[in-house]
């Protein structure tokens, strides 16, 4: 009887509450079903416990053994070991286990992290941080002030994290002994080997640092650097291990004094936490609109060494300049897009090359993904290379009118793409509490020639496609072109409904 299926058991006892009226029979029949359900639930619980135990055991056994591959950093000398970035290839179960831990500590960590830190946090991005810094500089332009900045980058930031200091900071923030104990287990006794060009090193014990590629590593690093010193009249713009100190004044001397004092406090903090600043990436720059002081440079001393003054500092991939014209950034992006167009040409051939749809997707991923940051007066430098990307996709010649070119490619013109991205970011700035500029005040606009981010039209992200389509139709009407592409079966409505870059 016990080996019979459940349906036979129910049938044997005639378990039907709607027909049977005998209360005792109903009681005994219901009791049997309850026992069956309880047994099934017990089996499920046992299986879950076994799975959890197996996962924990496997994680503990695998965590101590990690494969590390060395990737050469762009533009670095391959003969120098510091030119390589170590990436840890971790076990899938280990990553799953870390995600489970992350889900239980994320809310507490988010509530305790400084708002100046925008790296690897939900609702924050490099775009928002760049807008935060550039808008701060623009506000200085409006107030006739000079904005002095120091850009600091750490050397091997993840690799120099002290485990004991980290665990102490995690315990102070999370206040959960079990999670702290788990994190300690994940960090201690970690062994790794490096594989490069088919050759493997011997096993080594990792005493410090966080594995790059781990799920918890960015969050743990944010906790580790969360107590960086704050300064009077000097703002911090932090993204992971990239730090920008900025202050404003009408005097270069006042800016130099404030930044020097801030760096002195920062030096003590780095020493206490076993962190080292990268000397080649410590740069100084001043932003202002006074052309009479164009050649005036900030003189900042750090650790008895003068910092290099850079007229075109790079912050989060964007090249800045004294007046925020983004002219040098446009030149750099143009060269980058041209290089990626060369890759695009390799797969474009009338006989054996990729089809137009694949070329379009590749162009959006390679060429258009790098060309969204530029001021309008310098954007045409980049647009020329983006036009070439569309010609590669469609096979059109140079005399082809631009409206026909973009209609055939099914890609919105660059200016419309920039407007749409700006509008969606503006809506996020107005509605998302996590955006760095959410509670930003609007000072009096003195300079009519400066186009602030605050004047951008706000558009919701789910309405971006229709907004882009509307702008595209308006742009077509202003060109007085009758466009009916026949060569490729791209429809504008379909292409605009896709998420582009």
UniProtKB/TrEMBL annotation:
Keywords: Membrane, Nucleotidyltransferase, RNA-directed DNA polymerase, Transferase, Transmembrane, Transmembrane helix
Gene Ontology molecular function: RNA-directed DNA polymerase activity
Domain Reverse transcriptase residue range list: 52-320
Regions crossing the membrane: 37-64
CDD domains xref list: RT_nLTR_like
One Pfam family, short name: RVT_1
InterPro entries referenced in this protein's UniProt entry, alphabetically: DNA/RNA_pol_sf, RdDP_mobile_element, Rev_trsase/Diguanyl_cyclase, RT_dom
PANTHER family linked to this entry: ENDO/EXONUCLEASE/PHOSPHATASE DOMAIN-CONTAINING PROTEIN (PTHR36688), ENDONUCLEASE_EXONUCLEASE_PHOSPHATASE DOMAIN-CONTAINING PROTEIN (PTHR36688:SF1)
Protein name per its UniProtKB record: RNA-directed DNA polymerase from mobile element jockey-like
